[in-house]
Amino acid sequence: MSTSEKLTYLLEQVRLRRATTAEYRELLQLISDDESGEIVKLLDAFHSASAAADAGNAGYDHAYWQQAVKEILDADQPARELVILPVKSRVHFLQRYWWAAACIILLTAGAYYLSRQTQQPVMVNRAPVKDVAPGGNRAVLTLSDGSEITLDSAGNGVLAQQGNTRITKLNNGQLAYSGAGNPEGKVLYNTMSTPLGGQYQLILPDGTGVWLNAASSISYPTAFTGNERSVTVTGEAYFEVVKNEKMPFRVKAGNTTIDVLGTHFNINAYKDEASINTTLLEGAVRVNVSQQQQQLRPGQQARVPANGTSIQVVDHADISEVMAWKAGFFSFNDADLPTVMRQLSRWYNVEVKYEGNIPQRVFTGEIGRNLTLSQVLKGLTKTRIKYRIENGNRIVIQP
Q1: For 122-171, how does the pLDDT look when each residue is reduced to its tens digit (9 = 90+)?
Q2: Cβ neighbours of 49 (radius 10 Å)
Q3: Confidence (pLDDT) at 65
Q4: Closest C-alpha to 141, from 202, 186, 183, 187
Q5: Torsions phi, psi of 44, nearest 5?
Q6: Do 98 and 145 lie in a common domain?
Q7: Which pLDDT belongs to residue 190?
Q8: Which residues of 380-397 are buried (b: 16+ CB within 10 A; e: fewer)?
């Protein structure tokens, strides 16, 4: 069987979920042994042939690829290092239906980075360090009287009563509110906060679903009254808002306010990011800052500088990249190193420092958020990034 035939067979086995661990490793060996770049051409041909076969499906299954990664990385024999192919221009390996590329990206090291640089990768000797586990479902609920409940360790069932509103931890780990509010008419506020390395899901009193990313918070009344539903957010959150035309939903984040009726949208308002980004998935929202307003259509993203008053609208936002965190992935599309490291810092609760000038690299790819920090960082050394770990919780990027 020729190399081309063998590669096609292995990729087809993976695409159809029939590949064994041995076949995964054989595929990995083929890729790592390729020095001519011929594999890239074969992958392109495979993609063209398999795209038609996959027409009409829902896209590749992230959970499936994620499990495949863990099987490879946790095997008795260490997984082979990530292979970086020198490229002269950006290569689109992460098309949503590019099954072959997804397999290779995730199976090689849990990450696939392509650099614009044409230099050969530099191998770096690293001393063994204590690994850092990925984040998980962790949050603290602060009640109206200031008392706190650690949600990740709390049992399921009713956790507290706020007026006539019951706060319940559901069997799936979500926090939910139910009841008729405070009989005295007083508005009581709660705050849910996720730490670095945490995420959590919440169902607000009106049934609106909220997903909080790491190092984020949301403050909200325990019962919505009056003529609007208003909440305040820091960090990053995704909303699926229940429609109520008589009581519009309003989100405040930094210098930005988002008005909605019923819609799905994501807001990224981390203080260490250059702008507050509101991305609309469906429905309609109106972004307000100072005296300016901008209504968004699905697929658009509004960017408001953290200390500014302008609104920039991106017509075709990369929704898969924006929503990767909720699906259990990091996703980068021509991201620079600080962008990558800020996300890793939040999810793994580590500090990032730079010695000298920040390396100028561009990264494209997906990384499962269930991988350990060392598994993720393994890919960086193949893009000529050198680093060391200090005290188990600090990544130092070296020149």
Answers
A1: 333 344 456 899 999 999 999 999 999 999 999 999 999 998 899 999 99
A2: 13
A3: 47
A4: 202
A5: -60, -40
A6: no
A7: 97
A8: bbbbbbbbebeeeeebeb
List the domain range (segments joined by +) for residue 78: 3-132+322-398
Contact status, residue 375 vs residue 332, Cβ threshold 8 Å: no
Based on the domain organization, do 68 and 98 belong to the same domain? yes
**Structural domain tally of the chain?**
2
Based on the fold, state whether residues 167 and 307 are members of the same structural domain.
yes
Amino acid making up residue 297: R
Identify the pLDDT of residue 141: 98
Say whether both 311 and 350 belong to one domain: no
Q: Per-residue pLDDT averaged across 91-119, rounded?
A: 32
Q: CA 144 to CA 177: how far, in whole Å?
A: 14
Q: Is residue 196 within 8 Å of 179, Cβ to Cβ?
A: no
Q: Are residues 162 and 238 in the same domain?
A: yes
Q: What Cα–Cα distance (Å) separates residue 324 from each residue in 62, 90, 259? A: 10, 21, 24
Are residues 72 and 175 located together in one domain of the fold?
no
User: pLDDT of 354-386, one tens digit each?
Assistant: 998 998 888 888 888 998 998 888 777 667 788
Task: Determine phi and psi for 60, rounding to 5 degrees.
Answer: -70, 155
pLDDT of residue 2: 75
Q: Is 45 exposed, middle or buried (0-12, 13-18, 19+ CB in 10 A)?
A: middle
Helix (H) or strand (E) holding 44, with range, is helix 38-53
Q: How confident is the model at residue 344 (pLDDT cuts 50, 70, 90)?
A: very high
Within this chain, do residues 212 and 187 fall inside the same structural domain, yes or no? Answer: yes
User: Do both 125 and 140 map to the same domain?
Assistant: no
Q: Report the share of the chain in percent with pLDDT over 70.
A: 70
Q: What token pair was written down for 69?
A: 């990664």
Task: Give the domain CATH number at 41.
Answer: 3.55.50.30
Give yes or no for a contact between 159 and 220, defined as CB atoms under 8 angstroms apart.
no
Element (H, E) at 322: helix 319-322
The proportion of the chain whose per-residue pLDDT surpasses 90, expressed as a percent, equals 51
Question: The tokens of 343 are what?
Answer: 């996300």
Tell me if the pTM is above 0.70.
Answer: yes
What is the distance between the alpha carbons of residues 166 and 171, in angstroms, rounded to a whole number?
15
289, 319, 349 — which closes off a domain? Answer: 319
